[in-house]
Every structure is written in C-alpha cells, then in structure tokens.
Amino acid sequence: MFLEQGIKPQNKFWLYLIGSVLIIIASFIGQIPFSAAILYSSFVNKKAFPTDNEGAMSIFDPNLTLFLVMISFAFAFAGIYFVVKYLHNQTLLSVTTSRKKVDWNRVVFSFVLWAVFSALSFFALYMKSPENFVWNFKLVPFLILIVVGTIFIPIQTSTEEYVFRGYLMQGFANLAHNKWFPLLMTSLIFGSMHFFNPEVAKMGYVIMIYYIGTGLFLGIITLMDEGMELALGFHAANNLVGALLVTSDWSVFQTYSIFKDMSEPSAGYDVILPIFVVYPILLFIFAKRYKWSNWKEKLTGKISILESSN
C-alpha cells in the first residue's frame, strides 16, 4: 500500500521536517545560476538589480528565463532523492508507487487525456472569444520552447508531485496514522504555495479554490490508485500544454507560445468548472479504467502501524 510504504518505526515526523528543509536548501542552490545571471546582466547593463519577481522574469529571453528557473527544480529533485535514500532509508520507487515498478502506461494515459482535454478546452474558448487572443507564434523560438519545455517542465511538475503527493503525504501519514489528514494537509499546502503567483493578485483569492482543489484532486487519484503515476501525467500535461498553447502578461511564465491572452483576467466559471465538473468526470474515467473501489477506506481509513511495519 502506497502510504504504508513510508511508515516505519524510524521514520519519525521530525525527520520529514528536516528533509523538507534540505529539499528547500537544494532548491535555493539551484536558483544561484538565475540569480548570478541577473546580477551579471545588471552589472553589464548598469541597471538596478530587480526587486520583484516581475522584474526578474523580464530581463532575459523567455526561453532562457524558463531554462534558468527550471534548474532549481532539478536541484530540488536531487534533494528529494538524497533525503529519501539517506535520511529515510527508502527507495525513490517507494514514494512513487506501491507497484513493483513505475507504470508508465498510467503516466502516458493521464498525460494524453488531460493534454487533449486542455487543448480542446482552449480552442473552444478561442472560438467563443477570438478577440481575446492574438497570434504569438514564432517558429524558431517556439521550437526551442518545445525542447526546453519538454525536458524541464516534467522535471518541475514531477518535483512538485514527489514533494506533495509522495514525500509529504507519507510524512503526514507517519504523523496522523490515517489517510484523510495527509490528503487534506498536502492539498492545503500545495494550494498555499501558489499564493504569491501573479494570477492571485489579478484574479483575487477566489483562485485559491482552484489551486487547493487541484491539490485535492491529485491527492485523491494518488491514494485511490496507490501511486503517483496518474498525478505525474496530469501535472506534466497541465503545465506543458499551457506553456505551449497560450501565455499572458500576468501569468507566472511568459513563453513563446502559439497564442497570447490579451483579456483582463477574472475568476469565474473557469475556477468553479474544473473543481466541481471536470475533475469529477476525470475521477469517473480513472475509476472505471482502473477499477477503483473501497473509496472511503482508501481516502479516510486508519493506518495500522503494526501491519505497515511488517
């Protein structure tokens, strides 16, 4: 069982606190190249060092910015591997899935399902309000974006999944010895990590419903499927397709995407629809395909320390 794989007598919750700090430190180390590049650019061009995220993100070419920012996630992932192996004496597989090996068919199915849905949803929105979008396509920069995005965005999304749906979910299971508490806490923390995104400032705090709800959805499919494969595929598709299809001046990343959204952002049905309509439909599809059952026990049941330590 997925959560039970991390519950061992020696896996005290305070170890997860130490591990989280080490992962954060690794991420900070990974931010040094970006900070050094900004410092060098400021020195050469005799400009003040940017004091906010918006200023830092606008200094370099978008593809270079994307690459430099994503380096921190590669370092964070290395930190996860180190912490899991040497602090908790576990394998990376044990925080990935309860299966004997990673089921890549699950990853691909989830990725393709959400990529197709995201693309169709965008084009439906485009057909409804074409005046809100402008053609942003430039062949060479877009091809570079495909290469950089295809390599590094899955690293970014996988790092987040390993932190929240893998490492921290097992950590909170060690603390609470049940399944609902890890599900709730990781969803809340995942959502709160997006609090300082520029989308929140533009759309208001109601957008946090989407972020927390997405974390809850990813946690549910992880617990029901006894592994992170579906969450890994979904998250990678969500960020990669978004980066390739449409960008805006108020999003976290500005990319050489095909379209640029020129509309004034607002939180409406696009916040409510995924949480209360789209995600339940996806849960239904996954449940039918992978024959999920015993929902109450898998999402809220207690964890026996005796059984899990055998």
From TrEMBL:
Pfam family, one: Rce1-like
Transmembrane segments: 13-44, 64-87, 107-127, 139-159, 180-197, 203-223, 230-247, 267-287
Gene Ontology molecular function terms on file: endopeptidase activity
UniProt keyword annotations, A-Z: Membrane, Transmembrane, Transmembrane helix
GO process annotations (BP): CAAX-box protein maturation
All copies of domain CAAX prenyl protease 2/Lysostaphin resistance protein A-like, residue ranges: 142-241
InterPro entries attached to this UniProt entry: Rce1/LyrA-like_dom (IPR003675)
Protein name: CAAX prenyl protease 2/Lysostaphin resistance protein A-like domain-containing protein
Species per Swiss-Prot/TrEMBL record: Flavobacterium saccharophilum
